[in-house]
């Protein structure tokens, strides 16, 4: 099995989620559905998914899964950007609001990890879920601001 077969498996999963599955995606791509299915088979060593085909799958399905897996190869994460029509002023205000809220979350994190907390030094699953949501929102707004600042 190929070292990057997990990427092909992710592409296969995304393609199956497309309307009409792999066959529907092949039709939109102008590809032979049998060949595309072979390229999307992680165990297949003869036909390989090209980068432009993977990019088409990402674009057609609007799934970040392939990009997330590629980013993980270089110890990176992807971040959803805020809506394109948000003004710089509104994004800045939202960033300030979120940094304050995430500062409070940081304090909660520190308190949740104390030996005297409800779960001891472990953070409860509910806390993890809520904190992850807050941090993703902050990252999204920060990435949007960075994009605007860098032009």
How does the overall form come out from the CA principal axes?
Answer: extended
Unreliably modeled segments: none
Q: Write down how many β-strands occur, each being a DSSP E stretch of 2 or more residues.
A: 0
Question: What percent strand?
Answer: under 5%
> Given the structure, what is the number of helices?
7
The number of domains is: 2
Secondary structure elements and pairings:
Layout: H1 5-17, H2 21-29, H3 33-39, H4 51-61, H5 65-73, H6 88-112, H7 125-150
Notes on the protein architecture:
It is a single chain. This protein folds into two domains: 5-73; 88-150. The mean pLDDT is 89. It is extended. It has helices at residues 5-17, 21-29, 33-39, 51-61, 65-73, 88-112, 125-150. Helix content is 66%, strand content 0%. It is an all-alpha fold and 151 residues long. It is built from seven helices and no strands. Helix 1 (5-17) packs antiparallel against helix 5 and helix 6 (88-112) runs antiparallel to helix 7 (125-150).
Q: What is the structure about, briefly put?
A:
The protein contains seven helices and no strands.
Keywords:
single chain, 151 residues, mainly alpha, 2 domains, extended
